[in-house]
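Give me the 3D structure for Cytochrome d ubiquinol oxidase subunit II.
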Amino acid sequence: MDYALIWYILIAIAVFAYVILDGFDLGIGILFISADSTKERDLMMNSIAPVWDGNETWLVLGGGGLFAVFPLAYAVVMPALYAPIMIMLLGLIFRGVAFEYRFRTKRGQFLWDSSFFIGSLMATFTQGMILGTLLQGVTVTDRAYSGGWFDWFTPFSLYCGFVTVAAYMTLGACWLLIKMPHGMHERFYVIAKRCALIMVVMVGILSLWLPLGNEVIADRWFSFPQAFLFLLIPGCSAYLVYLLFKDLMEHKPVQAYLVVLGLFFLAFLGFGVSTYPYIVPHAITYADAAAPDTSLKFLLSGAVFLLPLIIAYTAYSYWVFRGKLKEDEGYH
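Predicted structure for Cytochrome d ubiquinol oxidase subunit II (332 residues):
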């Protein structure tokens, strides 16, 4: 049994779960600045209050799994990305503190509102920069990072940061369409359409920039027979984009949200196909970076127990707090 491959898939699932679950509440944090009133901001916060901290469990699982299961990859990636990772963590801490203290003061509420927005923007933008850095590749010599301190700071990684902001804002806007009370969510249809349009245009530019700037990825995308698979991804994406705007025009919030999740999945699939079997693109494979099989097997026995529990309590929390918010109720 290939335990390294199993863990490669499990960590990929954990990262994707984090992106789609924490993505919408980070997006709502960025949209926070666009709220019309304190009441609207209260409702926006209440839409994520029961689930936001649980969503970040998947980030811990993905990061901890990388450290335990693929120590070589962890040792290479961390020096390359120390700065953006620290900024991301500071942003997550910043927004977490703002989330809790906002409901405990009236005089300083504007300060915590601004902090929630800034923390969400910091975390989102740096996540995009981390993705961009991995896509463009890191310099590895003799199984160790040999690049500079600021190799992560490039036009491509900056652009990926802006793309991630637009994508999370779209996801957050669609979540608000589901949760906001009737009569208060009409404005968010306009916001969702604008965010979706910006996201689609920016992702399209990114899809052109990536192969033009990376010969390895260009070879994968346009060589036979992989080219047939890569034709499916943009084809399916175009269809989902059509469905997204159709659902937004017809005021179908749940369908629109699911379509955005589908677009995220296709983007994640494209990233996976572009980099597999590398865990540090395109320098170290998952097999080369893996811990000994005895360690992988031992850790897998714990994951088999923990993963169903995490999935169960995540699903349960979303089920309990399903439905639209009520204007006179909150969780704080």
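The mean pLDDT is 88. Let me know if you want a second pass.
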